[in-house]
């Protein structure tokens, strides 16, 4: 069994690559989580917590749980104090349906933790193409577009042929039977005929946001 002494937080990661270490909470015991949070507190650091279930949060000592800004939909938490995003949003987060929102919200919360605002555009899946076309001019204005979609995952390919910016596709586990928990969506995205669409792992809103953060670091500051 691991002990608190086995915990080594990567507190220099943001200085190295511009992205802070996030704590993947899935599989961690309340004791391990408490030790991680205390270690961060001792260092004066904030933490982004991903895949944090309500039961895990509730099992923490009350003094620690009370300091977590928790969102059940995305299963994310922020421990400590983080400044609100400032400046103009340069990322659009587009989701095909409301079932994809846990993933899109994870991406939005990750970007916000790192100080970047995002515009979320939901329920524009291609089964009702008119919904997407009604928002396409708005989406085209963003240099980075994160797209979360499950089932046949046609939305990223459609957007890849309509918008000039970087398209980061996130397959979600939404769908029946042959959707295979997101494998069909991931395969469809990897096989996209739209050139230049980047693809991350299934349900990995956090990873999509990190890819967007790397791209944002190459852009001139908003307003320049």
Description:
This protein has helices at 13-17, 30-42, 54-59, 62-65, 101-113, 129-133, 136-140, 155-160, 183-190, 205-216; strands at residues 22-24, 47-50, 68-71, 76-79, 91-95, 118-121, 144-149, 166-171, 198-199. With 224 residues, it is an alpha/beta fold. It folds into 2 domains: 4-79, no CATH class; 91-216, Rossmann fold (3-Layer(aba) Sandwich), CATH 3.40.50. The longest helix is centred in the N-terminal third of the chain and has 13 residues, at 30-42. The chain is globular. It starts with 12 loop residues before the first helix and ends in an 8-residue tail after the last helix. The relative contact order is 0.13.
**What percent strand?**
15-25%
Helix content: 25-40%
Spatial arrangement of strands, main beta sheet: 6-5-7-8-9
Query: What structural class should be given to the helix and strand makeup?
Result: alpha/beta
Shape: globular
Characterize the largest beta sheet: strand count, sense, and whether it forms a barrel.
5 strands, parallel
**How many individual domains?**
2
CATH architecture of the largest domain: 3-Layer(aba) Sandwich
How far apart, in Å, are the first and last alpha carbons? Answer: 52 Å
CATH topology of the largest domain: Rossmann fold
What is the count of DSSP helices, taking H or I runs of 4+ residues?
Answer: 10
SS elements, strand count? 9
How large, in whole angstroms, is the Cα Rg?
A: 18 Å
């Amino acid at each position: 069994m691991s002990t608190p002494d086995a915990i080594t937080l990567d507190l220099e990661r943001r200085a190295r690559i511009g992205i802070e270490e996030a704590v993947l909470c899935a599989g961690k015991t309340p004791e391990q989580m408490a030790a991680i949070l205390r270690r961060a507190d001792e260092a004066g650091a904030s933490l982004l917590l991903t895949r944090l279930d309500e039961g895990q949060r509730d099992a923490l000592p009350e003094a620690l749980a009370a300091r977590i800004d928790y969102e059940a939909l995305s299963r994310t938490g922020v421990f400590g104090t983080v400044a609100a995003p400032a400046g103009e949003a340069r990322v659009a987060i587009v989701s095909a349906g409301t079932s994809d929102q846990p993933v899109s919200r994870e991406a939005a919360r990750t970007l916000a933790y790192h100080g970047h605002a995002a515009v979320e555009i939901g329920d524009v899946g291609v089964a009702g193409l008119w919904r997407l076309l009604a928002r396409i001019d708005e989406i085209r204005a963003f240099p980075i577009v994160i797209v979360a979609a499950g089932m046949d995952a046609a939305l990223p390919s459609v957007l890849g042929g309509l918008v000039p910016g970087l398209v980061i596709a996130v397959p979600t586990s939404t769908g029946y039977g042959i959707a295979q928990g997101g494998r069909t969506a991931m395969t469809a995205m990897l096989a996209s005929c739209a050139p230049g669409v980047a693809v991350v792992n299934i349900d990995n809103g956090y990873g999509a946001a990190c890819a967007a953060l790397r791209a944002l670091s190459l852009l001139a500051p908003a307003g320049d």
